[in-house]
Amino acid sequence: MTSTNAVHVLGIGGSLREGSQSERALRIALDGAAEAGVTTELISGPELVLPFYDTALAERHERAVRLVEAIRRADGIVVVSPGYHGALSGLVKNALDYVEDLRDDARPYLDGRAVGLAAVAFGWQAAVTTLEQLRTITHALRGWATPLGGSINTAETKFDEAGGASDDKTVRTLRLIGSQVAGFALSRAGH
After folding, report:
1. Would you place residue 190 in the very low, low, confident or very high pLDDT band (cuts 50, 70, 90)?
2. Looking at residue 28, which CATH number applies to its domain?
3. What are the strands, taking DSSP E only, across the chain?
4. 33 inside domain
5. Residue 2 above 70 pLDDT?
6. What residues contact residue 115 under an 8 Å CB cut-off, 6+ apart?
7. What is the mean pLDDT of residues 87-99?
8. Would residue 2 count as lying in a domain?
9. What is the rounded average pLDDT of the residues 64-82?
10. Mean pLDDT rounded to a whole number for the chain
């Protein structure tokens, strides 16, 4: 857990397009976490433009250092990726590869942290396969994927700038994902 009593949830995701559908979905999930009583932080889109992860390099770009430190501090994480051609985006995958820098920590990788996951794609096939890939990566990084994950088809659901979506069920699902991450983190902190 973090060194203070505040429980902290980090959101990672989105695309290079600021205000993308996947970033808006991530913000809704983080709102659900905040409503459960935790602090939240968002690292999205342009902030995730990082050099390709390379274990052989000791030097890290300042954005990579910020990302790794934010993951290190986080008691829970929400990851939302766009689905591109049936898979998660390279932007999000590369960001998750940087979790390897936590391998020697007291809490290695995502150990002991709930990870809420959602995939946003124009079509069900890419949304579902991207969510499954995110779950597989989370398990490989020793994270606890929340019971609920979100597959969101933007052919049917559109997110708005006000923090909502055209489908109330999607908003409820995303908020519940954020709430599950916060609840797990709060219970581990003894709150």
Report:
1. confident
2. 3.40.50.360
3. 8-13, 39-44, 76-84, 87-88, 114-121, 144-145, 150-153
4. yes
5. no
6. 76, 77, 78, 79, 138, 143, 144, 145, 146, 181
7. 98
8. no
9. 98
10. 95
Domain range enclosing 72: 8-190
Q: How would you classify residue 82: left for phi > 0, otherwise alpha for psi between -120 and 50, otherwise beta?
A: beta
Domain count for the chain = 1
Residue where the block lists tokens 């985006």: 89
**Largest distance between two CA atoms of the chain:** 46
Let me know if residue 1 belongs to a domain: no
Both tokens of 91, joined, read 């932007």
> Any idea which residue has 């205000």 for tokens?
19
pLDDT per residue as tens digits for the range 124-160: 999 999 999 999 999 999 999 999 999 999 999 999 9
Question: What length is written for the chain?
Answer: 191
In a domain, 75, yes or no: yes
Placement of tokens 């954005």 in the chain? 63
Task: Please give the model's pTM, rounded to 2 decimal places.
Answer: 0.95
Rounded Cα distance between 44 and 15, Å, is 7
Q: Which residues pair with 20 in a beta bridge?
A: none
